[in-house]
Fold this sequence. Notes:
Layout: E1 24-26, E2 31-33, H1 49-53, H2 69-84
Antiparallel strand pairs: 1-2
InterPro entries: 4Fe4S_Fe-S-bd, 4Fe4S_Fe_S_CS, PSI_iron-sulfur_center, YfhL-like
Protein name: YfhL family 4Fe-4S dicluster ferredoxin
Domain 4Fe-4S ferredoxin-type: 1-29, 31-64
Amino acid sequence: MALMITDECINCDVCEPECPNNAIYQGLQIYEINPELCTECVGHFDTPQCQEVCPVDCIPIHPQFVESKETLMLKYHQLQKDKVS
């Protein structure tokens, strides 16, 4: 499951630096999450850090990118491998 940022986002800038995978970026109007990079912090933390710091609670699970914890862990390992390469 990747996360997404809804249009309730107030562009407060707190989520982007918290993402260990650099999946969050400034979009045209609000912050966005690249689902290919989002592991919901699996492999890094017990809970998604962007959700923890979001003051308006606008970061739900993205319904088009539903992944199991096992799949997220595989994605995490691949991203870590890609960082080393």
